[in-house]
Amino acid sequence: MSQPEASSPGRRGLGGARIVLGVTGGIAAYKAAELASTLVQAGVALTVVMTAGARQFIQPLTFEGLTHRRVYTGVFEGWNDGHTGHVELASGADLLLIAPATANTIARLAHGNVDDMLSAIALATAAPIVIAPAMEQHMWLHPATVANVETLRERGVTFAGPDAGRLASGAMGQGRLAATGEIVAAARAALGRGGPLAGRTVVVTAGGTQEPIDPVRFIGNRSSGRMGIALAEAAIDAGAAVRLIVTRNVDPQLVSGDVVVVESARELREAVDDALPAADVLAMAAAVADFRPERVSDQKIKKQGGQESLDLRLVRNPDIIAGVEKAGLLKVGFAAETEHVVAHAAAKLEAKGLDLIVANEAVATIGSERSQATLIARDRAPVSLPEAPKHVVAARIVDEIVRLLTLEDADA
Ligand code: C5P
């Protein structure tokens, strides 16, 4: 089986990234199989390195089957046919991810001990390191582990988890391996470091607002939140710090860090206002209700005998993005239209004072996995993108955001 191939220059995100996954000896090692499978399916060139402890819990064959690559264990492996073992694995990696990481491995890394392949790679690599610990909670809280974690953090290592919950011992506490989605998100953020949006904060809204009628009913829309989530991920892949504001029907599982959940348009506006001071870019992918019920009933509205209709009076919601004013903020809106898509979107670009608007045909886009978007900025003719999965479209939108920020910087 081959060594990791070179990732393409300018690569962004997980596709084509060369990741070394270190698996260490805790019961959570079985979960590393699912993590490996998820990464491989996302297009990662994944090489697994196991400690002796990990091999007590799970076989190298499991990972060889999932990655189609050789699995490394001993420090003297991989020196055949002109290859240079840990040196080559360390220098060929875009990221070293250790999941699960035991207290022992964290201690070995903090102290620079090299007694197996994983610790050798950790010392030899210049790639970012992400560690997802998993252990019994007294081990996690022990002052020795706390000090070791602190040492590694100071050296720039990122930690994902551990989460609180039921531990393998049956006790409840801190020490569960973070969810696969959370680990993958931390890996993306580490891979994105130093990208074209490094040092920028991007605020993204995703989903569809829900405007309450009574305690059990609301007026909503069909937005799935996929475009906003894809945009948040693409911005993280480009190195941005992202604040994601999602409506409560959206699962933000693949986005690391800063997530705020809201329900109505007015809650969404408050969340945007809170996020604005730090924001360089505001991208409003959320479908915001233009109207809300004037009165929200405290009690569930009951139908009366013989009642044939119910009057619901709606009042205007604030236009959030139009109302935002902050010098230097790049405002990105989305327009889902059913007719005259580009003309209507261009009018909104003007009316709302936007820098960029992403125009879509509403019926084909909302709730779908794919999108056909046109990017409309002020300084050039509209750019029509090919129909593609939303994560591909999101990467193009991020490229356009980078282009506009670069122009802004040049003007400043
Ligand atoms: O006017 P329309 O709803 O088509 O505008 C779409 C854009 O404006 C989207 O970016 C949406 O998030 C934003 N919007 C808003 N506040 C509203 C309605 C829409 O910020 N009340």
Jot down its keywords:
disordered N terminus; 412 residues; 8-stranded mixed beta sheet; 5-stranded parallel beta sheet; Rossmann fold; binds cytidine-5'-monophosphate; 2 domains
Give the strand tally. 21
Strand content: 15-25%
Gyration radius (Cα, Å) is: 24 Å
Q: Tell me the span between the first and last alpha carbons.
A: 52 Å
CATH topology of the largest domain: Rossmann fold
Task: Say which CATH homologous superfamily of the largest domain is assigned.
Answer: CoaB-like
How do the strands and helices of this protein lay out in sequence?
Blueprint: E1 18-23, H1 31-41, E2 45-50, H2 54-57, H3 60-67, H4 85-91, E3 95-101, H5 103-111, H6 117-124, E4 129-133, H7 137-141, H8 143-154, E5 158-159, E6 163-166, E7 172-176, H9 180-192, E8 201-206, E9 211-214, E10 217-219, H10 226-237, E11 241-247, E12 258-262, H11 265-275, E13 281-284, E14 291-293, E15 314-316, H12 320-323, E16 330-337, H13 341-351, E17 356-361, H14 362-365, E18 370-371, E19 373-377, E20 383-384, E21 388-389, H15 390-411
Parallel strand pairs: 1-2, 1-3, 3-4, 4-5, 8-11, 8-13, 11-12, 13-16, 16-17
Antiparallel strand pairs: 6-7, 9-10, 14-15, 17-19, 18-21, 19-20
Helix pairs in contact: 1-3, 4-6, 5-8, 10-15
The structure holds cytidine-5'-monophosphate.
Cytidine-5'-monophosphate binds next to helix 12 and strand 16.
